[in-house]
Amino acid sequence: MKPVLLVYVFLLGFTTLANAQQIQNFKSQIVGDSVQITYDLVGSDPRQTFEVRVFGIINKYKQRLYRAKGDVDKNIKPGKNKRITWNNKEELTSYKLENMSFSVDAILFNSPIIFLNPTSTTTARRGKELDIRWIGGDSFESLKLALYLNNTRIRSIGNISNGGRYTWDIPQNLKPGDNYQLRMSRAGAVEETIMSPKFTIRRKIPLAYKLIPAAALAGLGYFIFSGSGGSNIPSDILPPPQNPTNPQ
User: Fold this and answer.
1) What is the pTM of this model?
2) What does each C-alpha distance from 52 to 72, 122, 136 come to in angstroms?
3) Three-class SS state of 27
4) What are the structural domains of the chain?
């Protein structure tokens, strides 16, 4: 019976914790001139894809194996019981399998975009700024952002970089409403479109506040008008005497 090599995953830099969580239950087994590797790939979202790399380790020197087949390379989705096969006759032929160990790591290749803000409880105001935030996607890609009302596109916000955050100056002329959404689209191997939760846009100054000064002016005008129609002289004060007539 051929020996079974149980190998831990070597991880580098700041991705150590992330990869340690992504690769689980790693095992390798020598079968003839090949090595059969199994592992579980853990992700936070089933739509994520990873680039899985396999390495041969010889005297503490780690060499990436490019002839490996199976659940390796790009576009590998999370799941259990992933399998990789590598044949020693196709690569690193001068080394014996018994003198080698193996490792696998996973780099997040693609992650779906998820809106963090706005949410279903967001109320924005015309003439103010809206802080748009999201996670996912490729940090080097360009995204298209558009505004929808009642499931109808009403304007383009523009092309933005995938920095996870964008400040939008809300136009003054937008119609107040409760069914606004943002649409974010990305271009890749397959175009992906994401809609934000529905949120509310209100007037910059509530309509009730605008009516208060008008009502106050109307009241003041009524007071002036009503006070100008009568005499302000108290009724108990006699008028001054008239000039006496000149004697004839």
Assistant:
1) 0.60
2) 5, 39, 19
3) strand
4) 4-110 (2.60.40), 114-202 (2.70.50.70)
